[in-house]
Amino acid sequence: MTTLHINITRLLRELHHLATLTDCPPTTDATLPTPTTAVTRIVFTPRDLEARAYIKSLAESAGFTVRTDAIGNTFLRFPGSDPTLPAIGTGSHTDAIPHAGMYDGTVGVLGGLEAMRSLKESGFQPHRSIETLIFTSEEPTRFGIGCIGSRLLGGVIDPATADALPDRLPEADPQAPTGLTLHDVRTAAGFTGSLSTVPLPPNYYHAWVELHIEQGPLLEREGISLGIVTNIAAPASYRYEITGFGGHAGALLMPDRRDALCAAAELILSVERHTLAANAASGTADSVATVGTVAVHPGAVNSVPSRVTLMLDIRDTDVTRRDTIMAALHADIRAIETRRHITITEQQINADIPAVSDPHIVATLEAICQSDSVSYKKMVSRAYHDSSFIARVAPIAMLFIPCRAGVSHRPDEYSTPESIALGTRILALTLSKLANE
Ligand code: GLV
Ligand code: MN
Ligand code: MN
Predict the structure, then answer these.
(1) Is the pTM of this model over 0.90?
(2) How far apart are the CA of 139 and the centre of ligand 2, in A?
(3) Which ligand is nearest to the CA of 384?
(4) Is CATH 3.40.50.970 the right assignment for the domain spanning 8-233+354-435?
(5) Taking CA 121 as the corner, what is the angle to CA 115 and CA 122, rounded to the nearest 5 degrees?
(6) CA distance 349 to 362
(7) pLDDT for 247-256, tens place per residue?
(8) Which of 19, 142, 250, 397 has the smallest CB count inside 10 Å?
(9) What are the φ and ψ backbone dihedral angles of 297, each rounded to 5 degrees?
(10) Closest-lying ligand to the alpha carbon of 101?
């Protein structure tokens, strides 16, 4: 390769076009620094399918081959001179949670495509094939569990279990099942075939590198250009159903109440208390837990809540510490049930292990940053990523670019053109190096 030129104008144009494929109307949110259109792109909706079709057409115009599997994971392939060798993979996701930004996942997909394109345009012919993936359903919005496409590829979720996942397309009640399953929804979207064909065969990838925005503040705060991810924290999530006794908000006297929402409030504060205590004990900020959805039944101002469903997301770099927080929460739940005469049931949605990056890919990324005089730091990813599940079947690493104030999962998520171009360049150089091993 003589000169590698990342076409940042083209890449930004494509990122901005992708951001127009949103189900969120223009926002008038006065708390945001600039008027920003939020991105809502839920998996298997028309907007998601338009985004996939758009990227597929870009890949085909660049002369890459395109393959889609039964869950909709899409493989954009730059064929190597020996296509029988295990390939080099990159990529991320294009689905977006409600009211999100335009960089989460998309930088890894369009940046991966731009990396392959710029390598091809520079005259580079890889020995191993290079692929950019668009993963299906990285976000848990619709089916309650994240990374469904990569879980299937990595053999982490059983195909029948995945197909039976209830659809919870958020409308009035974010947790109410629609009566459809993932199988119904994917086949209606045109992704037919058996999910048992999705898991990757052994040695499919020689190496895997995902480009992503940091989604945290450290790179920007420390003035460092890139992050090389050494570990991805272990996520878990749970659904709780809290059942009390409802009634008239005026007539049901306080001593007789079994208010499900008051019990939920105690549970939520218990999560926060035990997570803060875990951080205090470890002297780190590595334990994080969030209750991000609460649905109250019947949801009327003059009716005592009889039933509440809520979801907990808890993550830690240390699984034992995560388990310790959950054990303390369980003790509190038993106490809340007894004291308030309430029933609380828990359903575990997932409890995943941390992923560890491959030392050779990390060293390759470091060597390329050093020879390009790019500042970097090795760091932990506290967000989960599709790479967490590709790690089960291939050596992985990740490359982070800074994002403004660490903001993500918000419409004002932002990374500079310079960071996007630099991340894409280092990705391209890394892919080309690994492809010729
Ligand atoms: C991914 O979006 C995550 O929640 O970490
Ligand atoms: Mn996300
Ligand atoms: Mn993401």
Answers:
(1) yes
(2) 6
(3) 1
(4) no
(5) 90
(6) 31
(7) 999 999 999 9
(8) 250
(9) -110, 135
(10) 2
Positions of CATH 3.30.70.360 in the chain: 235-351
Taking only the tens place, the pLDDT of each residue in 115-169 is 999 999 999 999 999 999 999 999 999 998 999 999 999 999 999 999 999 998 7
Q: Does the C-beta of 352 come closer than 6 Å to ligand 1?
A: no
For ligand 2, a single-atom ion, which residues have Cβ within 5 Å?
Answer: 104
Domain with CATH 3.40.630.10 in the chain: 8-233+354-435
Pick one of 3.30.365.10, 3.30.70.360, 1.20.1250.20, 3.30.390.50 as the CATH number of 235-351.
3.30.70.360
| Torsion region of 379: left, alpha or beta (phi above 0 gives left; psi -120 to 50 gives alpha) | beta
Query: Does residue 135 line the site of ligand 1, with CB under 6 A?
Result: no
Q: Which atom of ligand 1 is nearest to the CA of 215?
A: 5
- Determine the atom of ligand 1 nearest the C-alpha atom of 384: 5
Pocket test residue of 145, 148, 150, 384 for ligand 1, highest count of atoms within 8 A of CB: 384
Name which of 307, 297, 302, 308 is nearest 251 in CA terms: 302
